[in-house]
Amino acid sequence: MDGDVDRLRWRIDWAHGELKKLAGELVEMGLTGAAKFIRNSANILVTYARLTMKGVRVPYTNNQVERLMGEVAKRVKNRWMH
After folding, report:
1. Of 11, 30, 52, 56, which sees the most CB atoms within 10 A?
2. Half-sphere exposure of 72 (CA within 13 A, CB side)
3. What is the C-alpha separation between 80 and 38, in angstroms, rounded?
4. H or E stretch at 70
5. What letter would DSSP give residue 74?
6. Dist CA 40 CA 75 (whole Å)
7. Which domain holds residue 58?
């Protein structure tokens, strides 16, 4: 929000480092499945920050979209059954 892209990039790199460290600790504990999940999901977890760096505004909540999709699904299902 404040336009400090360098700080945001640092935070993304820091988050990746912490996730990598956590995955390493999980491997040492014998939890290889959880470690693999964290490694595979690391980039997805910072998608919001990467989009913010590109100037994309992501809403905090998607309740309005979910409500509209529910209404559309309800109406389509109702018409289809009749």
Report:
1. 52
2. 6
3. 42
4. helix 63-81
5. H
6. 38
7. 5-81
**Cα dist. 39→22, 42, 51 in Å?**
9, 5, 20
Most confidently modeled range among 3-7, 14-18, 68-72: 14-18
**How many C-beta neighbours within 10 Å does residue 62 have?**
11
Q: Give the C-alpha separation, 21 to 68, whole Å.
A: 41
Q: First CA to last CA across the chain, in angstroms?
A: 49
- Please state the pTM of the whole predicted model: 0.62
**Amino acid residing at 13:** D
Domain count, the chain: 1
43 contacts 15 by C-beta, under 8 angstroms: no
What DSSP string describes 31-60? -HHHHHHHHHHHHHHTHHHHHHHTTPPPPS
